[in-house]
Amino acid sequence: MSFSALETWNQTAFLAMNAGLRPSPLAVSIAKVLATGAVYLVMAALVLGWVRRGKRLRYALLDATLAALFSLAIAVGITLIWYHPRPFEIGLGRQMIPHVTDASFPSDHGTLLFALAISLMVSAQWLWSIGFLALALSVAWGRIYLGVHFPLDMVGAMLVAAVGNALVHLGKPLLHSRLYPIMNAVYEGLLRQLRLPKRMFPRDL
Asked: DSSP characters for 28-85?
């Protein structure tokens, strides 16, 4: 498939998913919550998982966070090399939320969420991975629906997230045997020093 044919498909798929001229008020409200609030939900979930669960999940969350950072770094690198305009920059579809004029490919939101979901899936944290994957797909829909991303921005985000996870996987033996035990020990030592209640801040799990 040529680049022009791919771009034609991208724009056609975008128009099929975008809010259009008569959007449902309920759909717009849901999309706005997903598009703007997902990052805060993710941060809260990561902190809660780290605090309330044991070492196995903590290591998985560290893997996921590192994969997300690597993936976002790759995404930034792509935007510096190649600029793809957002739909509203070329007058396509309807924009329902304000957004700065910067490169659309790949989606930062999509990259973050797909990186977390893929990493947690690799770590066999099934409940967490399914939740993050559902959130990633929902946010992808929401940001396309609201007119700030193309479908291929989200496909690209998924691919970048896979690469970020592959990089973390290469260093996993060293991370799990050296770095993560130190981080976990420092965290639990801090809890003991502060004499925080075990019921709220479990340790030695």
From this structure: HHHHHHHHHHHHHHHHHHHHHHHHHS-HHHHHHHHHHHHHHHHHHHHHHHHHHH----
> Per residue in 64-99, is it b (16+ CB within 10 Å) or e — as a string?
bbbbbebbbebbeebeeeeebebbbeeebbbbbeeb
18 burial class (0-12, 13-18, 19+ CB within 10 angstroms)?
buried
And the tokens for 3? Answer: 């680049």
pTM, whole model, 2 decimals? 0.93
Predicted confidence pLDDT, tens digits, the chain (205 residues)? 788 899 999 999 999 999 988 898 999 999 999 998 998 999 999 999 999 888 899 999 999 999 999 999 999 999 999 999 999 999 999 999 999 999 999 999 999 999 999 999 999 899 999 999 999 999 999 999 999 999 999 999 999 999 999 999 999 999 999 999 999 999 988 888 888 888 888 877 7
User: What's the DSSP call for residue 21?
Assistant: S
Three-state DSSP state, 11: helix
* DSSP string for residues in 81-133: H-----GGGGT-S---S---S---SS-HHHHHHHHHHHHHHHTT-HHHHHHHH
End-to-end CA distance of the chain: 52
